[in-house]
Design a protein that fits this description.
Structural class: alpha/beta
Number of helices: 14
Radius of gyration: 21 Å
Mean pLDDT: 90
Largest sheet: 10 strands, mixed
Length: 407
């Protein structure tokens, strides 16, 4: 009952965010903040991925790169980027030279403490990994999802690997790159036996970090053949195997060997951050900001305007995000910065056996799975969910005009 109630509260809290599509007045990021850069291109569209992407096109990529550099140049950022992540889409559709140019521009404006990048393994070569290290990347995340070729094909992936997963991991570690591997449970065609084989495979090749996601049902991207309860149970089986293989649990879905982490979700809950590129999120000056699609993004910035979906940040939502992060980190204890109604709820979780001595119990861990999954599935993505935008028709008119101009 408490799990059901918590999921409902979190879902309602995040779904209350309503954006308006309009011109964004310049805002500043100073001191300590994060940076996220969205690379929207993919060679195919995976069924499990809810994020904004466009099928790779060389001409569109050229326009994207020109616009991205203009956006970075025109944004008032000074100070220290505590973290930088390149996400997608598929960031390694960009060449090493293209990545280097972006990083050089960014580091000319701010001090960068560490950089991570998501990588599609089918595109990786040893030269590319070496080049990432030379550019200054410190972390890489490889989306394996499943070792099963049948499962990968069913998700829509089409590329064959140039080097093996084992070679990718060994080279990354040799270069001093912290390497995370993403796995998923509940993919099309992936039954319990296939997932257990996936965990055995990852335990054998030993990346620095393993992140296991349950299948997310976001904006009609399908449903899993495995129930939510089964998915969570399988993650717990995987947790036992990974811990016995030398990993430490760092969060509900993260297991690592050492103290470093590749975790953009956690970092985005800690500092304000500026997002560059189409569909990139930012939080700053009490606003939540989401850039529009690629065509609208290029057209607006070419005209020296910044069009975006904009919503006010509310204290209530921020408080529930702090609570969600606490649960994500497997902790459960009242803290002074949270309002009394949330601290009272935390005390209720303690009295009902979900947590003990500030940490989640076994019962509480299943609660954390359900709550974290609900938070991710409830996040308002204005590009994919028109109901979160109060003037969506204005956006569509702008987008249709942009497509004609850009094409």
């Amino acid at each position: 009952m408490l799990t059901f109630l918590s999921k409902k509260i979190m879902s309602r809290s995040f779904k209350k965010t309503i954006y308006r599509f309009r011109e964004l007045k310049p805002i500043s990021f100073k001191g300590n903040f994060g940076v996220y850069l969205h690379v929207p291109f993919c060679y195919s569209k995976c069924s499990f991925c809810p994020f904004y992407k466009e099928i790779y096109n060389a001409n569109l990529k050229k326009l994207y790169l020109e616009t991205l550099q203009k956006e970075i140049k025109d944004t008032d950022i000074t100070g220290t980027a505590k973290w930088v992540y390149f996400g997608g889409g598929t960031p390694n559709t960009l060449s090493l030279r293209e990545l280097s140019d972006i990083v050089s521009l960014l580091t000319s404006k701010v001090t960068v403490e560490g950089m991570g990048i998501e990588l599609l393994p089918g595109l990786l070569t040893s030269d590319y990994l070496n080049g990432l290290k030379e550019i200054g990347f410190t972390k890489v995340s490889v989306g394996i999802e499943s070792f099963s070729k049948k499962v990968s094909n069913l998700t829509g992936r089409t590329s064959d690997k140039k080097i093996s997963y084992k070679e990718i991991i060994e080279l990354a570690k040799k270069l001093g790159l912290w390497i995370n591997v993403d796995l998923m449970v509940g993919l099309p065609g992936q039954n319990e036996e296939v997932f257990i084989e996936d965990i055995s495979g990852i335990s054998y090749i030993q990346p620095n970090q393993v992140t296991i996601y349950p299948y997310m049902s976001i904006r009609n991207n399908g449903k899993s053949m495995l129930s939510e309860k089964t998915q969570f149970s399988l993650i717990e089986q995987a947790a036992n195997q990974l811990i016995s293989s030398g990993y430490t649990r760092k969060g509900i879905w993260i297991f690592a060997q050492g103290d470093e982490l590749y975790d953009s979700s956690r970092d985005e809950l800690i500092e304000d951050y500026v997002g560059f590129g189409p569909a990139a999120f930012s939080t700053g000056e009490n606003y939540k900001i989401v850039n529009p699609d690629l065509f609208s993004y290029v057209f607006a910035i070419e005209k020296s305007k910044k069009m975006a979906f904009i919503a006010p940040k509310t204290k209530t939502t921020d408080d529930w995000r702090k609570f969600a992060k606490m649960i994500y980190d497997l902790r459960c204890e009242p803290i002074d910065s949270l309002p009394e109604y949330i601290n009272s709820y935390i005390k209720l979780l303690k009295t009902t056996g979900y947590c003990k001595n500030g940490h989640l119990t076994k019962k509480g861990i299943f609660f954390a799975h359900a709550l974290t999954k609900t938070v991710v599935e409830s996040l308002p993505f204005p590009l994919q969910n028109p109901s979160t935008v109060e003037n969506y028709s204005d956006y569509m008119s702008f987008k249709n005009g942009a497509i004609k101009k850009v094409n």
